[in-house]
Structures are given as structure tokens and as C-alpha cells.
Amino acid sequence: MPPTLRLAADIGGTFTDIVLVGGDRRLATKVLTTPRAPEEAVVAGTRLLLAEAGRTFADLALFVHGTTLATNAIIERKGAATALIATQGFRDTIEIADEGRFDQYDVLIEKPRPLVPRHLRFTVPERVDVTGDVLLPLDEAAVHRVAGQLRIAGATAVAVAFMHAYAHGHHEQRVREILAEALPGVYVSLSSEVAGEVREYERTSTTVANAYVQPLMASYLARLDEAFRALGSTAPIQLMTSGGSLAALDTAIRFPVRLVESGPAGGAILAAHIAAERGETQILSFDMGGTTAKICLIENGTPLKGRTFEVDRSSRFMKGSGLPVRIPVIEMVEIGAGGGSLARVDAMGRIHVGPESAGSEPGPACYGRGGTRATVTDADLALGRIDPANFAGGRIALDAVAAERALDAGIGAALGLDATGAAYGLSEIVDENMANAARVHAVEQGIDVAGRTLVAFGGAAPLHACRLAMKLGIRRVVVPTDAGVGSAVGFLMAPAAYEIVRSRHMMLASYQPAVAAAFAASLRAEAQALAERAAEGRPLVTRVQAFMRYAGQGHEIAVAIDEGALNSADAAEWLREAFEREYQRLYARHIPGGRIEIMSFSVLVTTEIVAPKPLPQLASLEVKPTEPVARRRLYDVAKRQWTEVAVYDRARLSAGCRFAGPAVVVEAGTSTVVAADFDAAVDAGGALVLTVREPRR
Fold first, then answer.
1. pLDDT for residue 1
2. What's the whole-model pTM score?
């Protein structure tokens, strides 16, 4: 029998989530992440599920993987010894940046520390202009001299970023050839391939980030592939990218910077699927795991997407305080607010939570693995939200006494509170931090979160979803099945795709149809070759965009275009009309007769996503009786008092079951706290739907 099982694995800072799907059956588990060798947790979790299914590694047909390893390596500065080779005169591009200050009134501002120290930045004579014409040929002798310096410095990765290399990448390619001969085994990233766009700082920063994590990711992915092959798997390994699509293993090794935020992207894909099934058009996706919380806005079934992401922000909500990477990315805000986030009290008596995390080693104090500082999970346990005997499916027994001891020592002693008061304060701070992040993110997008539906998943999100909804003015919460491993479930819904954005400046008044069509065709061929590696024979479709602006503006807008019409006689006219329509939609006006320029073209080659079948409306389902399996003491944070609540086993709940809060719904991967002001119901897709109870008239 040919292999039929599909596997997804999401490595987080605390837990590694594994999902196994075969036919209509889906199995899931959570195991503690093994930071020193992340593949060990993936293999261990996969063994558990295959044993439960009575199958072997040889039965795997597909393995989809997402990981935070690249992000963590940048944040923790644990990447490779990386060097930069730039055009002579541009040694300090990554330090000068755009000369902006993300907080202009802070005289003690701390800018993000470059990934490449100055002594590892080198330059060589060469120069290309904005059109791609060579003004100064590459000095190959200088490159050979730099290679000798790199050998002495012990660099294991090199980023090459020359001026206007997006328009002419031959100099960068020649540098790679020279380095391959002089320094075999050293990883080389070229800006013309990693981020072939205008804006020197962002292009260089992205290329440096790619080089910085490439040896780490290449080594890890090779070990993972080898481990699965040794166990009998022949399944292709595909990687989730930050843009919400799948890439083949060799593509991911070549461009690992695209794996930044790969795990959270899977959660956004899941939330979009949940929304489409239920006819929801305005969604706030809430993913809270062991280390971070991620919030994403979804409009009309599609997560908002962008072209730039900042890693390692020194100021959480300040644009410009992080290292920019120019890649296709699902827009979201991520903060250090997870189950393992550590709490402390400052000199002014204020509770702070995160971004530092206990991770999986030693983990929260209640894990009994050596942790002594209070975390969000310790607070959730002390407030009665978690059953200590059934955490993570019963594989991790929690120590409630250790949790209270950590809360007393870390918060209670400083503020004169008992363990319950300390846990309440910690919980309220982390919930307000997440609510504030959602507000800021929504304001940046010009969106009001009130009135949206909150889709909550991740091991900790269902514990906090109702309280977060109250703070944001949201009246409806959806907790999907297998919410505890939501991002991994989303991996299996993602399309195989590859997107290339490359700059090619053209004034619309002097538009050259043949040149534009040939340029788009070359991008399509390149993107298609990379997308086919992950498509596994599935049909591909192409979507083309032009990034256009009025001449003199600082930024462009994306305009969907018909590739086949680029070479038509009236292409310039319909490009103008398309640009003005999109500009009018975004800004409620356009400039008649304004001079327009094309800065870049984007080509996305992707497998089609099959829209899910709409589910029957919840109101149409027959109401079924629901009996609790137990009762438990739960601290009501809204009323600030203990109360006894019903406990429901999610495995026993079927479509149509309804009950009123306060209550707790338990399952292997998480627990859902239903606040006192909410009613709960199970819809036709098995999701828990929590709705604010209407007041009696």
C-alpha cells in the first residue's frame, strides 16, 4: 500500500507540536522542545502518534515543518560567524541604516545591533548604476584578498550586497565563484537572489540575515532529513514560509530567511480556513503558545500580507527598532507573552511579564524541571484554569505547590499579595499586554478590532481568549478542534508556492511593453522552478503584481496585473487605470494626470487553495443535552473571587451541545476557560463558539 499519512511539526520555544492526518482521522500531541537538538523532539512526537495509529515512518506521504529556529538565532545572536562584502564606500550600510530614529525624543535610544560586526565588513571596488550598466568592473584581485582575510577571521557565512545588484547581479555571482574556490564549505548569500529590490539598507539587512542563519538551518534540516530517512520515511520534507506557503527542503536551505515567522504563519492559515468555513469576513487571529503570542488580522478570508518584517525589535511596538527583512510575510504582531513568559516586579512595584521565557528547559516552576521564577502557566495553574494531572495529555504532571511558591517569592513578597493575588496580577498584565498589542496592530492597519470574531488557538490562547475578548470589545470567540496544535494543523492547509519580487524601474510615460513582458516572464520561470519542487505534481497558477507610485513618492502600492497583457499596445493605459483604481481604493482619491512609475514586479507561482465547504449555521443545529464530567474551583478575574464551575470533556462534546459559563472545557492540548458572561456551543465543524450572553430584558 502506498504511503498515505500526512505529518506536520511546529517547533516552538517551549513545545513541539505534532499532527498526523490519515483519511478522516487526525491525531495530535505536544512534546517539550529539545533546544540542543530540535529534531529529537520532532522524532519523539512522531513516534508517539505513529504508534497510536499503528503505522510506521514508511507510511508517511508528506512531512510539513515550521520552526522558530531562524528567528530565535537572530534574536539570541546565535547564528554563524558572518561577514559582509559590499561595494567600496558602503562598508557601514547596515549600521547607518536609513538614518532614521524610531523614537526621535529618546536621547538614550538603542538601535538594533548589526548581525555583522565592523571588523567582518569588507569592501571591493565595483559599481553598477540603477539601470544595470557597469560603471566600474569588479576588481577580482580585491575579492581574492578579501577571501584570505575571511579565512583568517574564521567566517563560515558571507553576505554579498553590491550597489544596484538587483539590476545587474553578475558581479555578486562572480564573487560567489571566487569564494567557492578559495573557501570551500563557506555559505554565500547574494542580495540579487535573496532580496533583489531597491532600498539598499533593507536589501543588505535581509541578505545578512539569510547568511547569518543559513549554516544553522542547513545543518538542522540535514539532520532532520537524515533522521527520518534512517527510520524508513521517504516522504518529502516541505517547510512553511513566513508568507504562508510551502517550500521544498533545498529551497529552504538556500533561503532560510524566508522561514522567519514560519510557525505563526501556519496559525494564520488555520484561522483563515476557520473563517471561510463559517462565512466570517473579519477575524482577529490569536495564537498564544509557550513563548510568544501572535495576533493577525484576517480580511475576507485572507490574512493581511506585507513585504517587510522586523526581527528583534528593541522596542516592542516601535517600527524601525528591529532588523528589517524584505520577504513576503503575513502581517502580524508578536510579543513575548506565552505560557513560559517570566514575571518580575520592578523598583516601582509594577508587574512585568516577558519577553524573557523559561522555555522548555527548565520551563515554568510547575513543570518541576528546576524552574523557580513565576510564569504565566504558573499563574494559570494557581487560578484553577489548568488540571495539573492532565496537562499536555497527562504526559507532564504539574506541581501546584511549586507554582504557588514561585508566585509568592517572585511577586507576592514584593507586593504583599498571596499566591492568588499574585497570579491574578500576573494574568491581568499579560492579558492587557496582548490586548494592547492587538489595538496597536489594528490602528497601524486602519482597522477597528471591536465587533470582530476572535479565533483562538495554541496551548495557552483558549485559557485567555474570553478575557482578551472582553478587553477588546469582541463578543464572539471560536476555538477550533485541536486548538493546542493549531499552527501545525494550518501547515497542512497551506499551498506550495514561491514568490519573487525584483526591481525594474520604468516610467509609465515611456513604458516598454516587450521589456516588461520579458522581465515578468523571466521571474515566472524562476519562481515556477522553485515552486514545482514543493508542488509534487499539483497544477500551478501564476499571479503578477506591479509595485507602482506617483513619481517622487517614497513608497509604492501593489497593483494586480494581467501578465498576458503586459506586451499589448494599450498596456500603459490599462496600467494607469489599474493603479488609479487601487490608489483611489486605498486613499479615497487619486491625482489625475500624475506621473506614474513602476518600481518592481512580483510573480507568485502557487498551487490553488480549495475553498472549504460552508458549514451549516450554528442556529440550525439541534440542541443537545450536555453534562459536565466534574466540577472545579476557578478564579473569576472579572469578579475577583473564587467560584465552582462545571468541567466538560471536549472529546464528549458533539455538534449542537450548548452550555453556559462559567465553565472549563478540557482536552489533551489545551483547556478553554468560558467566562461567566459567555455562552458556549459546539458548531457543525466541532469548534467551540463562545458568545457574550445577551442581557435579559
1. 57
2. 0.88
